[in-house]
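ENTRY TYPE: paired fold submission
RECORD: A
CONTENT: sequence, then structure tokens
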Amino acid sequence: MNETLEMPTLYKRLSKVGLPPKFIQEKALPEWWDAELENNPVAVLEAAGRIAKRLGLDMASVLDPNAPITFNKVIRPKFKKIQKNSDESRLIVAQGLATRVAEMVTYACKRPFVGMATDASEIRNFILRNNPYIDLDAVLKFCWNNGIPVVHFSEFPKGSIKMDGMAAVINDRPVIVLSSNRSRSAYLLFIILHEIGHIASGHVNDCVLIDEKIIKEAEDKEEQEANEFAETILFGEKNKYRWGKIPDSIQLTRMVRQLGNKDMVAPGALALNYAWQTGQKEDWVIAGGALKIIEPVANASVKINSYLEKELDWESLDTDSEEYLKLVTGV
């Protein structure tokens, strides 16, 4: 005789995989759910199905009260970790939730994927044909016009390990998911270009690639290639600038604005490059101050998802998927 699925037990089983009750209640349960329904076996069964669908969980594992809950399997997860020997399971929740969002976004993308150059300089030149600068807006237009969705998603359970970004090929098209909570455009611009580098270099042809944190000192060859690809799109070549000591944020702001006009790149990206290249703590403080001057009101994730709102065919999604995607992307 099959056991009845009970909500308290389901909450405990979900908690074991890093999905606590509060997160389930806020993000995964449908709008019609009410706590009084916990004693209704039919309602619990339907709610469990919605939870599995929204979060990308294996349906059979969720509905079996005696089974450990698992995420749907992806082709091959590829984890780019800060510490090479750290446990990959730390990122399973981030990978599972982000992959589910990526699936919905690629399914509802209006434009066909038309391919993309594999040379960074060619991509830079292509972007500059229709834009005065390499900046966040220009790169977002490039991605969406080529049928490459970009989504900002950071609605992870409290305490779970997050990631900077993810790149994958899902539903026969590349997709980029950003999860960094950085508010200023320069940071998220570099992450997008880094993920474009992974896609163009063939790093994600048969996998979902998760970047825990994008750093200059990466020893991984693919991470180095993606960093160099991003630098070349931004500046025309890698390691282009040889920065001297700059005393304060105001001086740096003046310098990067002049360089930005000359080299057709967002000043914020140059300020970030200054700190990236020197690597000194005090220079990161100076660069941070310059970014505040350049972009005093910053909410880059909202800008990214404003493109998502316009570019998706929302009616192609079922009602529950549309409700969940709008909830977790804020559109």
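RECORD: B
CONTENT: sequence, then structure tokens
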Amino acid sequence: MRARRVRVGLAGALVGALALAGCGLKSGSPMVDDVVPGSVGRGRPLDGASLTVTSKNFSENIILGQMIGLVFKAAGAEVLDRTNLPGSISAREAIVKGDADAMYEYTGTGWITYLGHAKPIPDPLKQWEAVRDEDRNNGVTWLPQSTLNNTYALAISRKNNAGYHLRTLSDVAALAKRNPAAVTICVENEFASRDDGLPGMEKAYGMSVPAANIKKMDAGIIYTQVSKSDSCLLGEVFTTDGRIRAMDLEVLVDDKHFFPNYNAAPVIHTRTFEKYPQIAALLDPVSRKLTTEVAQVLNAKVDVDGQDPHEVAKDWLIQEGFIEEG
């Protein structure tokens, strides 16, 4: 399940979250990796700490949750792994209630889904600052964000783009005016009707795509259709999806900054952070290395190659020198 897909159906997710909270989030297992500090965690600043990490149940967020756990483990903590919770709300409630101590969250999800704002803030830093400041009231501490931005986009196959040379969504709008029949778009049902999806995008860019040129289908099929068939010139994608690289797709630039920012940032239960403020020094360097392109590569290892998210996270942290094998 992708980050955006849990922005709807919140009532049902909340019921599940409350059920998990009611049973004290008893699921989970100790992280037993033999890892030691690399460039982070020297001096084992979390010696004696017992910390719980969590995540939502889609590949990218599981990978990011595993990264936090492995860094904590290398820094001396005993770590309980409660990643892969169903949906956004379950993981969110775990952090708010203190049933979990840390996870990676997305600024747009925090601002829109949890804090209830209808209008996103276009500037990524200002969006993060607004979420950070308001969420303090909920006992949640946001650490500095990464440039990893898991948001909506339109993509085209490199093969098809050879004939159009599209680079931005404004280019798509110009093509739609010049040759309406050329612009065919494959989207999910949700994206086709959301204000922060296709209707809003058309309005923001002054484009009008004929209804017959909009084809609705499941997310996984979109990537294949855009890559391997001529039924869709363009397709709705998620910017960090590993299939973008695997299927040789080009993501078009949202040059009017219409789509919300969903930058990944560590969120910590505030009482935990007050007890272990050294967590910031452990996670900040990791976040600085996390980009949209890095996420595409790591997500592809799981979603395309079938690797285990824990091992993908561990291999990357070792490769970057953050931790080492014990």
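NOTES ON RECORD B: Residues 1-26 have pLDDT under 50 and may be disordered. The radius of gyration is 20 Å.
STATUS: closed
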